[in-house]
Amino acid sequence: MTTSSFDRWLHRYAVFTAMIALLPIGMGALVTSLDAGMAFMDWPTSDGQNMFFYPWLRDFHANRDKFVEHGHRLAGSLIGMLSIGLVVLTVRREPRRWVRGLSIAILAAVVLQGLLGGFRVIADARVAALVHGLFASLIFATITVFVLATGSKWQRGGCDSLPTKPISSGMKSLAIATPLAIFGQSLLGGLVRHLGLALHEHLGGAILATALTVAVIVASCRSGQAWLRSASIGLSMVLLFQLVLGAGAWATRFGFPPAGYVAVQQAPEQILFRTAHAVAAMFVLMMSVQLAVRVLRLNWLGSGVRFERAVSIPVQTSTLETCSKFAGGPA
Asked: SS3 sequence, 196-224?
């Protein structure tokens, strides 16, 4: 695959899949905010009816919790179908074995995610809901990596020519540590949302994750690589948005005495801020993963160029000596 002949349709389908993945993510976050995870006591049926024939729209006014939970189930089914299509399209059109394997891994993860959601209902286990939400963020990030790998800029790392040197070890370490810290912060946030635990740990984790994220943003902007700089700009935007949403989620849940604001549980503004905060966390993780993958890709390309240059000189010298021998020149 080259920058001029990359498969546009596969890439577009992957982008579409990533966009549709936001439906079950958003609906799932809303389910948690409404505490509607047990709106139905059965799975995969809904009140004993086939999931796809359940009169879903009837619940729009009659039962808000059932409407949201069933919408989450339908959205999950949709992303499952799209994941099957992604595998079929990738196997038929993508020559790179690891990309084909990635598409299969995405499908397997989506299937496992559906089973986790079902287990959460059958066992009525909030811990399973926590794992379900965290796994969704990993799936979303993986789909966007697939989008990146099938894009036109992957071949040369967003450059007109191949990078001439690998990325520094410090930059690589920072790029890898940042999504790990953000995922840990998401875990702490999940404990707050699902189990009412680790509130102060979540605040401390936010400081660490923000510090690492700012550091990797600054390092990316100073790297001189446009591919990294564009990702760092996106990461800085979602980080700022997430911090604002976090403050809003805190105020609407616990109140803000200096302003005389008293939190009302399950008020519309509380549901809105808490849901948006959970979804934005997945975007922060996704963008940090995107940046890390770009760093590793540029490092791999730079290392490859350096290796080729290192081995080219002795090969050329050996060839000249051999030609000289055949021509009767000095040995």
From this structure: CCCHHHHHHHHHHHHHHHHHHHHHHHCCC
- Taken as a whole, the chain contains a residue count of 331
Q: For the segment 114-172, what is each residue's pLDDT rounded down to a tens digit?
A: 999 999 999 999 999 999 999 999 999 999 999 999 999 998 776 655 665 678 899 99
Closest CA to 69 of 48, 89, 95, 43: 43
- Per-domain boundaries in the chain: 1-153, 156-310
62 by DSSP, 3-state: which?
A: helix
141, 171 contact by CB (below 8 A):
no
Asked if omega into 44 is within 30° of 0 (cis), the reply is: yes
* Lookup: tokens for 58: 């009837």
Burial class (CB in 10 A: 0-12, 13-18, 19+), 123: exposed
CATH fold of 156-310: Four Helix Bundle (Hemerythrin (Met), subunit A) (1.20.120)
Secondary structure (3-state) at 282: helix
Residue 21, SS3? coil
d(CA 278, CA 130): 12
What's the predicted TM-score (pTM) here? 0.88
How many of the other CB atoms lie within 10 Å of CB of 166?
18
